[in-house]
Amino acid sequence: QVQLVESGGGSVQAGGSLRLSCAASGRLSNYAWGWFRQAPGKEREFVAAIMWSRTTYAESVQGRFTISTDNAGSPGNLQMDSLQPEDTAVYFCASGPFLTRSWDQYTYWGQGTQVTVSS
After folding, report:
1. C-alpha distances in angstroms, 3 versus 13, 54, 62, 63?
2. Which residue intervals of 1-119 are DSSP H helices?
3. CA-to-CA distance for 108 and 88, rounded, in angstroms?
């Protein structure tokens, strides 16, 4: 069983930046890496995903967030710029066999890291 651990969350003011990282206890070859978030009282929502060189983003973060990997097979990191209060949520790293926006298609999940953006 592969364990995922997120890091890099914190508190910033609107307009600020954070970089989230995901560490895996094992290697997942040919797996997609995704980031999801969940705000209090809301459902978990897709943020971004990457598989090889292909990426996909939620419309709400397009142009502000960038997902990348250090090398093939490495977990995806999430650079978040121009953060807004509505980005406040717990952010989860996930990995699965398909590049998809559907959270139920991801096999492995981290415990989440809190991101708080103040106005």
Report:
1. 31, 24, 28, 30
2. none
3. 23
Q: How far is CA 117 from the centre of its chain?
A: 16
Q: Distance between CA atoms of 81 and 63, rounded to whole angstroms?
A: 9
- Transcribe 63-81 into DSSP letters: TTEEEEESSTTSPEEEEE-
CA angle 44, 46, 52 (to 5 degrees): 140
pLDDT digits (tens, 9 = 90+) for 41-67: 999 999 999 998 899 999 999 999 999
Tokens read off for 97: 């066999």
Beta-bridge mates of residue 46: 36
Mean pLDDT rounded to a whole number for the chain: 95
The whole-angstrom separation of Cα 48 and Cα 90 is 14
Residues in the chain: 119
